[in-house]
């Protein structure tokens, strides 16, 4: 396993990490989750991603129970939570001081840890001043309840505002952003955040590197049974898949699969390795519903060297997803 610095911080995360979105509770019980987490840890994974909204907190409870049972030394792994969607009441949602604080305490209880290594603002809250959010996060850092805080799917302007306020008031600035990044979703990481990487040393913990499973090519003949798109709570993924844009991605994935066969690697390894080629990616969060699937995905780092400049150009020709800003430039 290779390890990369989380932006300009001194923390090094495994370049492949393990997340629980969709799978824990919905597709995996505690026993299966434990086997996947142990498999990941034994392979060198040191970052486990979670959020208050995943399975309405059940995902964190499962992960917490596993962590308690395996008894790994606390200084050998990192665990995260995210705050935004905690419940239906006004005090249970958003990025105001109360919810940020309450959600942190709740995550600590569910995960059964004394502190969170990484704590993310799961989405921007346009009804709460960014200064209030930065101050709330800084307060938790000062209390030792979180070590690093960051954002997820914030705009570059919002992140830059957070940095400016942190400097102005001598507060802890954000360290990382968790954006979606894959062959079909590239704008933020490859264009919008470029100056943040250069000027601020922003780290990234990317999610959906396989485009919600589309880049596995398993949707080429429709939606298979027991896939995430058959789950009622993820109907939005099904609607997106069935749209003209979604079907275009399916067709491009079919062509990518043919190309990956020419290279002697799987489409999954090609897609994950493609993400790892980007030096601004600190870690790629893997999701898996079985140990075998996870073991297979963890092999992706071994094929990065096969993605030469010529291969990367061919991939771009197939997907036609490079940000327009780059093309115009």
Q: What can you see in these coordinates?
A:
By secondary structure, this protein is of the alpha/beta class. The chain has a single domain (3-328), classed as TIM Barrel (Alpha-Beta Barrel), CATH 3.20.20. The protein has helices at 30-42, 58-70, 97-111, 130-142, 156-168, 187-192, 194-200, 235-242, 244-263, 267-276, 291-297, 309-319, 324-328, and strands at 3-5, 12-14, 16-19, 47-49, 78-83, 116-121, 146-151, 176-177, 203-206, 283-286. Strand 7 (146-151), helix 5 (156-168) and strand 8 (176-177) form a beta-alpha-beta unit. It starts with a strand and ends with a helix. The relative contact order is 0.13.
What structural keywords apply?
eight-stranded parallel β-barrel; 329 residues; TIM Barrel; single chain; 12% strand; two-stranded antiparallel sheet; 13 helices
Radius of gyration based on Cα positions: 19 Å
CATH topology name, in short, is TIM Barrel
Number of domains: 1
List the total number of helices: 13
Beta fraction:
5-15%
Distance between the termini: 36 Å
Which shape, going by the Cα principal axes?
globular
CATH class descriptor name: Alpha Beta
Mean pLDDT: 93
Q: How is the biggest beta sheet arranged?
A: 8 strands, parallel, barrel
Enumerate the strands of the largest sheet in spatial order, edge to edge or round the barrel: 3-4-5-6-7-8-9-10
Helix-strand category: alpha/beta
Ranges where pLDDT stays below 50 over 5 or more residues in a row are: none
The total of beta strands comes to: 10
Q: At CATH's second level, what is the architecture? A: Alpha-Beta Barrel
User: What's the helical proportion of residues?
Assistant: 40-55%
User: Can you say what the CATH homologous superfamily is?
Assistant: NADP-dependent oxidoreductase domain
Could you give the order of the helices and strands? Answer: EEEHEHEHEHEHEHHEHHHEHHH
Indicate the multimeric state.
single chain
């Amino acid at each position: 396993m290779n390890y990369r610095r989380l932006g300009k911080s001194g923390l090094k995360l495994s370049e492949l990490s393990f997340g629980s979105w969709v799978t824990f509770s919905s597709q995996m019980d505690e026993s299966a989750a434990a086997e996947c987490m142990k498999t990941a840890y034994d392979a060198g994974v040191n970052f486990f991603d979670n959020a208050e909204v995943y399975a309405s907190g059940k995902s964190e409870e499962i992960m917490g129970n596993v962590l308690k049972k395996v008894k790994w030394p606390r200084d050998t792994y990192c665990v995260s939570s995210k705050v935004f969607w905690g419940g239906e009441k006004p005090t249970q949602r958003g990025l105001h001081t109360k919810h940020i604080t309450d959600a942190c305490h709740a995550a600590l209880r569910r995960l059964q840890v004394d502190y969170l290594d990484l704590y993310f603002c799961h989405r921007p809250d346009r009804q709460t001043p960014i200064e209030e959010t930065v101050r709330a996060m800084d307060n938790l850092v000062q209390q030792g309840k979180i070590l690093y805080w960051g954002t997820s799917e914030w705009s570059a302007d919002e992140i830059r505002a957070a940095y400016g306020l942190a400097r102005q008031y001598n507060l802890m600035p954000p360290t990382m952003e968790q954006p979606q990044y894959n062959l079909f979703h590239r704008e933020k990481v490859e264009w919008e955040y470029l100056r943040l990487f250069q000027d601020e040393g922003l780290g990234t913990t990317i999610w959906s590197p396989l485009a919600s499973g589309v880049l596995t090519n398993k949707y080429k003949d429709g939606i298979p049974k027991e896939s995430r798109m058959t789950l009622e709570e993820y109907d939005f993924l099904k609607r997106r898949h069935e749209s003209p844009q979604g079907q275009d991605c399916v067709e491009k994935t079919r062509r990518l699969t043919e190309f990956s066969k020419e290279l002697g690697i799987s489409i999954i390894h090609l897609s994950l390795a493609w993400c790892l080629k980007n030096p601004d990616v600190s870690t790629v969060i893997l999701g898996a519903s079985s140990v075998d699937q996870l073991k297979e995905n963890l092999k992706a780092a071994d094929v990065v060297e096969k993605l030469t400049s010529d291969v990367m150009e061919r991939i771009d020709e197939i997907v036609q997803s490079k940000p327009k800003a780059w093309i115009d430039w």
